[in-house]
Amino acid sequence: MATVLTTRALVLFAHGARAASWAAPFERLRDLVAARQPGVDVSLAFLELMEPRLPAHAAALVARGVTELTVVPVFLGQGGHVLRDLPLMIEQLRADLPQLTIEVVEAVGENAAVLAAIADYCVGSLHPAA
After folding, report:
1. Least buried of 43, 74, 82, 84, by fewest C-beta within 10 Å?
2. Which domain holds residue 51?
3. Pfam family of this protein, just one (predicted)?
4. What's the pLDDT tens digit per position in 9-27?
5. How, if at all, do strands 101-104 and 68-73 pair?
6. How far lies 69's CA from each of 49, 66, 79, 81, 127, in Å?
7. Closest Cα partner for 63 from 99, 102, 39, 30?
8. Would you say residue 28 has pLDDT above 70?
9. φ/ψ (deg, to 5) at 11
10. How deeply is 3 buried, as exposed, middle or buried, from its count of CB atoms within 10 A (0-12, 13-18, 19+)?
11. How far apart are the first and last CA of the chain?
């Protein structure tokens, strides 16, 4: 995990899984984002099954001096975890960590640019017509 250079942090929030290998693409994404934002603490946190969980991770960030947190749900859709579980978790974090400003952005799969990139990949996977 990066040392905090500023008081800002960006947490990529994912579901989590039993298999450790499941996190590999999220770790690569974290590294790509961190390389583009060297002055921001960029990390991963999970809903369940993997560590760190978002509540404990947010508390650790505050202990390191973070005052502004942006949470990016790395989910393709706005299912129950994004619509119910995450808002409840954020509400509790705001109560527990009032010194922390928290912004939650849309799930990555709801973003038009992300969908366009995925569509480009899908179309590019087709072999040229004969």
Report:
1. 84
2. 8-124
3. CbiX
4. 999 999 888 888 889 999 9
5. parallel
6. 22, 7, 22, 19, 43
7. 99
8. yes
9. -110, 125
10. exposed
11. 49
